[in-house]
Amino acid sequence: MTEAELLVSECRAVVDHAIELADLTPGRTGNLSVRGEPGGDGGSDSGPGNAFAITPTGVPYDAFDPGDVPVVDIGTEGGQLAGEMTPSSEVPMHTAIYRREDVGAIVHTHSPWATALAVANEPLPPIHYMIVAVGKSVPVAEYAPYGTDDLAANIVAAMDEADSTAALIENHGLVVTAPDLPTALENTHHVESLARLYLETKSAGLEPQTLSDEQLETVLEQFESYGQ
Ligand SMILES: [Zn+2]
């Protein structure tokens, strides 16, 4: 079985969730991707999957079917393995992040409040306990042209340094990684709402207070025991 045939459920997930980008980002500027399972059905590979399904470029979020969804190789070629439509123009960023990070899904938006921070080159500090969904802060990745490997390298470097699963992209937008797509989308909403909270507090002439490292560690412990 080919890698593309193994990504049926991932292509379906892209179709099912793409419409959620409409609430997060202007026009068609958002994109999301889901990585295939390691080895897939009956596969013997261990480690992360070698391909991902991603939103197509230039079509409305609700105007494509699973068979249209581009499936892209994470290996050295980086080529399209399946799907009737052309992948998002930011596919190199997704490919490069999957090459560097063991994550299952990526959401990229130009959501306005997060992007306002990105435009100001201002990281999001821990002003609210919900930030631990992505880390203790959201860093800003240094600007590079969209769709380049340099940009992906800057994003991964910023995430690694801040130990965060999200990064603002300087003068560009936001990227969030997660083990699965629903979590990546939920965390994108968290970062966007926290960016708004931060900026609206500042706009009111007030100074946002931040949580201490100790307070954040306590929240992380609470989160780890939540839902069990
Ligand atoms: Zn973008």
Automatic annotation (TrEMBL):
Lyase found in the keyword field: yes
Alphabetical GO biological process terms: pentose catabolic process
Gly residues bias (residue ranges): 37-46
Annotated spans, Disordered: 26-51
Keywords for this protein: Lyase, Metal-binding
Pfam families found in the cross-reference section: Aldolase_II
GO terms for MF: aldehyde-lyase activity; metal ion binding
Protein name (record): Class II aldolase family protein
